[in-house]
Amino acid sequence: EPSPADAPVPALQLPRGGRRLEENDIASVALPEMDAGRMLHVDFNGEVYDWCSLVELAEDLRSPTLHEMMQDNIAHYFGIPISSQAVIGEDDRRVETAADWRRALRSSAPMVRLLDLRTGFVDEVSGGAASSS
Q1: 70 near 105, Cβ under 8 Å?
Q2: CA-to-CA distance for 88 and 86, rounded, in angstroms?
Q3: Would the N or C end of the chain have less CB density within 10 A of its end CB?
């Protein structure tokens, strides 16, 4: 059976992993970035990545398949199957639809947390605990 990493990805190919932010870069994430370098930052396994350019993603923001495209790219670049992905926005709400992605990407320096449900985690959204089986 092919792995999620072998699955075809949508036409928009997000950069593999992006550039890892160093400790002294973290403070700059919250600063407004109004130029063409505006990026989506992803916190995954305790590391923060500059994952994709929002300028490159702009055309896809109106697409009703935005959520599915992002899920496919997460599966490809982070190796997390779609059924095991949890994306949490800066407002601590789950990102589960195209409208949720548009809301999450509105800030000047958007950041989402990416969780792999296979590893177990504390779900801060519902206050419950999830565990792997």
Answers
A1: no
A2: 7
A3: N
